[in-house]
Amino acid sequence: MKILITGGHVTPALAVIEELRGHELVFVGRKYALEQEQTLSFEFKEIAKRKVKFIPITTGRSLSFLNLFSFFKIPFGFYQAYKIIREEKPDIVLTFGSYLAVPIACWARIFDIPVYLHEQTSIPGKATKFIGKFAKKIFISFPETKTYFPSEKVRLTGNPIRKAVSLILKKPFPLQKEQVVLYVTGGSLGSHSINQHIENLLARLLKKYTVIHQVGDTRRYNDFERLLEKKSKLPEELKNQYFVFKHFSEEEVGYVYSLADVVVGRAGANTFFELVSLEKPAVFIPLPWSAEKEQQKQAKIFKDAGVGEIFNQTEKSENLLSIINAIFQNLAKYKSNFRNLKKLYKENAARTIAKEILKN
Hints:
Helix content is 39%, strand content 18%. It contains 14 helices and 15 strands. It has helices at residues 10-19, 42-49, 68-88, 101-110, 126-132, 192-206, 223-232, 236-239, 253-259, 269-278, 294-304, 317-329, 331-336, 349-358, and strands spanning 2-8, 24-29, 32-34, 39-40, 53-56, 92-96, 115-119, 137-140, 154-156, 181-185, 210-214, 242-245, 262-265, 282-284, 308-310. Helix 1 (10-19) crosses helix 14 (349-358). The termini are close together.
């Protein structure tokens, strides 16, 4: 069976790909994280490692004249999608959301190819709602998401989680863990705002904690180079407590998670479910402009369960430091509260989705 998978949220896609070995797979997504910088995307690099055929697609985000460049990419994206569907002739299309999936899903519908959809977030975006109108089946991660789709199509599978997050496959750096560890991540692109807050607090954080910092690789701000320089100027006793990287590969992320006691990062659905599965307390810094404000909703679910706190990126850095210190001071309490969220975590989500689409 030939299965065409579209990106959007790539980490759950990677988890399902692991369960679809033995079938012919094609992945359609973004080759570059930021087109203007020509920086290879996380999805392109990870799909290439798995020797799955990767086809890049370029399409606009919305029908708006506010961004003319994005607007005029929409028809080009539909033309690309037409060619991809005609040439690849997949038996099934499995999409993980985002505007990139819309033209592929539309042409699949026109050519009578069944479309399956997985929605990671608590509140689906416009693209996902649109695809949901004609998808054969819709897999969801949060129970409340079912209200946005026809109930007869919906199955609560949970969010597929990469096996690698719980495995130590590769150690990108040696660390004798002598004190508690704070892991800071801005996601695959990194976050300039989060990086700035950590930079402001770095000396004070390192007096108490070892800090592992995944910075990202956007050339616009040069955060990685600047933070490396800042590290070089630290006192010798603090240098060995600060580990700064652009990215962690699929093989490295499990080691980082195994060391982390507390995580600081965005409140995306994949981070949310990885932390629930690993029982890692967190300070969530929701992306202010996330579609439909789903990151704020997910951060609130985490906080209300007693396993984390919320920091708004417009606040003073000192407030973030106070929150981090408070979590570390009550670490056992935060960890024990994960029982409140375990009902959301479904262990075999990737396998369940793979089995469902193969019934086709």
